[in-house]
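[retry 2/3] Succinate dehydrogenase cytochrome b556 subunit: previous attempt timed out, resubmitting with same input.
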Amino acid sequence: MAGQRPISPHLQIYKKQLTSTLSILHRITGLLLALGGVLLVGWVLVLADGPDHYAHLQGTLGGSVLHWFVCVGFYVFSFSLSYHLLNGIRHLLWDAGIGLDIPNAYKSGWIVVLLALVSTALLAFRALSGGAA
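[retry 2/3] Succinate dehydrogenase cytochrome b556 subunit: success.
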């Protein structure tokens, strides 16, 4: 009988929990931020290369299918930035011993997700309305 049981708990045994899902999302958003950071540096390098190169990049991305991917990528990057920042603050509070009990951990998790979605929606609204700071 012992040979049929797993040696350690496995993902198929336990019910998915909010805390584990948000932990996985935190890791995914960290990877997306790293990838987005590389793309952002590439964009800045093209911008620094002069107006001709930047106009060529804009011509390539604007008005094509790539433009749609760039827009979606921008919103994914902004959600990743918001979520990763807010969840990092949540973890700092946990490190200070604040909100470690299960009800508060779930409440703060939902608050982080909600605030990340709201901040991304506000950024999207601002970007789509054509407003500049």
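[retry 2/3] Succinate dehydrogenase cytochrome b556 subunit: The chain has one domain: 29-128.
[retry 2/3] clearing retry counter.
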